[in-house]
Amino acid sequence: MIDYKNLLDTLFEKVERMRTERPSAGTRYWLMGMVADIMEVAETLQKEVLERVRQEAVLDADVDADFDVMAEEVLSWELTIKNDALQEPTQQVNDALGGLSDVLTQIGSQLSRRHKDEEYARLYEQEKRRYLSSGTPRRVRQTFEDWLYDVCNGSPCMDDINAYVTEKLVHMFEKGVFDSKVEHIQRATRYPAEFDFSLLDDDHKLKKSIHKHYSELRKLVDYCDGFLVVNPVKVGRHFYTNRKEENARGHRNAFLKYMHKIDMVQQERKKLQEADVEHEDSSLLPEVLATGMAMKYWKGLQKAGFVDETFQLSPTTTRKQAMYIADVFSDKLQMRSKWKPFQELWHINNLAQEKWEMQETGKTPARSEDIDKVFVD
Predict the structure, then answer these.
(1) Per-residue pLDDT tens for 37-88?
(2) If you ran DSSP here, which 8-state letter would residue 287 be given?
(3) Environment class of residue 81 by beta-carbon count within 10 Å: exposed (0-12), middle (13-18) or buried (19+)?
């Protein structure tokens, strides 16, 4: 009769060794899967001993050699228990499994939430890179460009963008990406302020479940100021937990493809919003300082801390720095009147006098190098 206690003790030692070695971040993802698989097998072994059945299983994972060998030993045992000797080996197996369970729990606790999140995010990024390296993104981009120029004449309005996003969401749901989850939802969370699916035809096959599909999608993406933004950790966890489902790869591909399409049109939304903000901001400036090139320089000055969001001088900006900014700014824009627009904007006088003093002393203001960097083309 096989000595199950010794086999499990050996396994226990190997797991203990893996625990003390503290696996690197690069193998943590596989270790998580291995821990889950071994615990599942451990429960199965216990049932098999009690029911006196014979079974073999094969591990479906690619991990480090030591862990691989260890798992193969667990999963390939053939259990043959004689009726008259059932009680003692059953107890031995239970004791050994108890020790194994404790060690596996310790491994699981070492894989902290932060490290798990890192691995889930890494899994999502791996799948995204694989998708982007395929031929699909090029075809998706071409289809999007066709829509942009054929339907929107190259300049989509906000209604066009919202309709496009809604259409792609419905297409994603029609692919069945979330079907296995949706069928178990009793009551879906509604998001009426985000997307209006009421325009769908009454006979549309998803009419009754559209809110369930969107509710499931929102578990994976965040809604930020009108944009659907993928949460890498949540999506990675979703990919991992559903990896063994039928057509799992197809669903992953569909998710990545349609979120790629939505992201492209959301970039158009961002351009519209930035144009609106720029137009609104430029109303605070004299016309000569509100050109496209000028707005680029203003943003650089804001980022460097010389002016605030209303283009006024920051409290830390000196008169000499203001003169230097106006001097370089006006040269870049080839302005006829060098000082007047800036003096009126900032409510200061005699910037020309500051320029004369700088020329006399030969000393440039503090942080003049930072100002120069703003105006580098």
Answers:
(1) 566 666 666 565 555 433 333 333 344 444 455 545 554 444 444 444 455 5
(2) G
(3) buried
| Cβ atoms 194, 170 nearer than 8 A | no
CA distance 283 to 233: 42
pLDDT tens digit sequence for 322-341: 999 999 999 998 888 889 99
The two three-digit tokens of residue 44, written as one number: 């199965």
Secondary structure (DSSP) of 215-243: HHHTTTEEEETTEEEE-HHHHHHHHHHTT
Percent above pLDDT 70 for the chain: 67
Q: Give the tens place of pLDDT for each residue, 182-218.
A: 888 888 888 877 877 776 777 788 888 888 999 999 9
Report the distance separating Cα 267 and Cα 262, nearest Å. 9
The whole-angstrom separation of Cα 4 and Cα 308 is 74
pTM over 0.85: no
Residue 81: its pLDDT value, please? 41
- DSSP assignment string, 137-189: HHHHHHHHHHIIIIITTT---HHHHHHHHHHHHHHHHHTTTTHHHHTT-SSPP
Q: What does the alpha-carbon distance between residue 371 and residue 326 come to, in Å, rounded to a whole number?
A: 10
Q: Give me the residue label for tokens 């291995």.
A: 34
Give the tokens for residue 228. 């659907």
* Cβ-based burial of 117 (10 A; exposed 0-12, middle 13-18, buried ≥19): middle
Phi first, then psi: what are they for 369, rounded to 5°?
-65, -40
Single out the residue of 160, 53, 36 nearest to residue 104, CA to CA. 36
Question: Would you put residue 204 in left (φ > 0), alpha (ψ -120 to 50) or beta?
Answer: beta
Sign of the dihedral defined by the CA atoms of residues 139, 142, 144, 150, in that order: negative
